[in-house]
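Dear colleague,

Thank you for sharing your sequence with our group. We've completed the structure prediction you requested, and as agreed, I am returning the results in plain text so they can be pasted directly into your records. Please verify that the sequence below matches your submission; if there's any discrepancy, let me know and we will rerun it promptly.
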Amino acid sequence: MFRPKASVLLLASMVVAAVAVSGCSSPNAQEENLVRQYFRASSLRDNQTLANFAVVSFDPKSEGVVTDFEVTGVGAERNEPLQVIALSKALKDF
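Please find the predicted structure tokens below.
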């Protein structure tokens, strides 16, 4: 008679729980994760991490600390060139 070991049963229950949790997650989970990474990297002043997905940083010392947030909506994805030279010139003229 075959009896599964406890580790097999534990692994199977963990897989079932992971599938159940992922099915019940919020529709904005990916966006919330990205924003959470942004605020975490900004609070640690980790400019290398911020450079991977952000153009500006958030300084918690001067702008406050974000402890909780909620993504209320997500627009369609847009791809357009970043006009750094024109924006830099406009900032200097300001």
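Summary note from our side: The chain is about 55% helix and 0% strand.

Kind regards,
the structure core
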